[in-house]
């Protein structure tokens, strides 16, 4: 009888341990706010990976993104490195909102709805670069100031 109680207690302790580990995993997978240095690093890596010509890089540095195949893939690359886009599920609205609000997102507010309105589920069946470009274009046209502010050092 004593052995069964000890086994039962061990089983309960193990369940608690597993639950705690799962909670830690959930907390540690939360989106981490990126800064200007991160953006510059991602931009540089994507320029190298995709062999983006200097003429386009100069435009990107001015926040100008023409609708061409190289730019589309460049934006997909940058947003993917930011943890905001993935080829299968597209944009993560919560992560974008968290980034733009610098970690203080209320996912029930107006901004969340505006971000969501910019992003589609790729019903068109476009390639990932085109899909990423559509969302990025809308976000940058409608929220460029917030994007820029979200990358600035906290004061």
From TrEMBL:
Localization in the cell: Secreted
Domain of life where this protein originates: Eukaryota
Alphabetical list of Pfam families matching this protein: PBP_GOBP
Transmembrane segments: 16-33
Keywords tagged on the record: Disulfide bond, Membrane, Secreted, Signal, Transmembrane, Transmembrane helix
Record flagged with keyword Transferase: no
SMART domains noted in UniProt: PhBP (SM00708)
Recorded family membership: Belongs to the PBP/GOBP family.
Protein name (Swiss-Prot/TrEMBL): General odorant-binding protein 99a
Species, as recorded: Drosophila arizonae (Fruit fly)
Gene this chain is encoded by: LOC108610568
